[in-house]
TrEMBL record:
This is DUF3105 domain-containing protein. The keyword Manganese does not apply. Pfam families: DUF3105. Residues 9-27 have a biased composition (Polar residues).
Length: 232
């Protein structure tokens, strides 16, 4: 018998069982890569959800801080009941005043003035950091406002106390040069002078003279007039 010649350049097909094992290994590797890819994708999704959750929580926290800051920044005003303007308070001086309108400067007998002839335009009520024109402020008193004036040299603590005593409307707070007392509280025809912002008679004065119905023009506006320099 003549033997079959072998082709030295052709590789052997190998054992079929070995070829199957190689295919299984490759399939397993592909499955492992797919599983790893899916695991990585799940990790990214989980981190994204955690990031969104943290952002939401952080956003809520920031919103809470901002809300607190906004609420804290809102001015807190004192509240009073409109008085009749006829109570007796120790130290209050009362006056009978004329109430003519004039565009000329007025020479007042009381400093600061507590009534009298005044400018046709009233001063808008509020807190001012600069001195105000007498004639405009007196017109506001005619409408029932209370005017709190203070010597510019009082301490920041005293000024803050005065601010805390102010209602949201029908009140004016401003510095005033040349007073003979650190603080004066004036309404139409009535005035109280005190040495300290902690004097208990200040809120008592408000309770009795603020928006009094005994002024010449009770209930008239305290806005819509002229705004002075330095309105806070």
């Amino acid at each position: 018998m003549t033997p079959n010649p072998q082709n030295p350049g052709k590789p052997s097909s190998g054992n079929p069982a070995t070829q199957q094992t190689i295919k299984q290994q490759r399939a397993a590797q592909r499955e492992a890569k797919v599983a790893a890819f899916k695991k990585e994708q799940e990790r990214k999704k989980r981190n994204k959800r955690l990031g969104i959750g943290a952002a939401v929580v952080g956003g809520v926290a920031v919103a809470g801080v901002l809300t607190f800051a906004i609420v804290a920044s809102i001015p807190r005003y004192a509240t009073y009941t409109a008085g009749g303007g006829d109570a007796t308070i120790d130290g209050v001086e009362t006056y009978t005043e004329t109430n003519n309108h004039t565009t000329d400067p007025v020479s007042y007998d009381v400093t600061p003035p507590a009534g009298g002839d005044h400018n046709p335009v009233w001063l808008n009520c509020g807190i001012y950091t600069e001195p105000q024109v007498n004639e405009n402020a007196v017109h506001s008193l005619e409408h029932g406002a209370v005017w709190v004036t203070y010597d510019p040299s009082i301490s920041d603590e005293e000024l803050e106390t005065l601010r805390s005593l102010m209602p949201s409307t029908y009140a004016i707070l401003s510095p005033y040069e040349g007073m003979d007392t650190p603080i004066a509280v004036s309404a139409w025809g009535a005035q109280l002078k005190v040495d300290s912002a902690d004097d208990a008679r200040i809120p008592e004065f408000f309770e009795n003279y603020w928006r009094s119905d005994s002024v010449p023009e009770p209930g008239a506006a305290c806005v819509g007039g002229v705004t002075g320099e330095g309105k806070a």
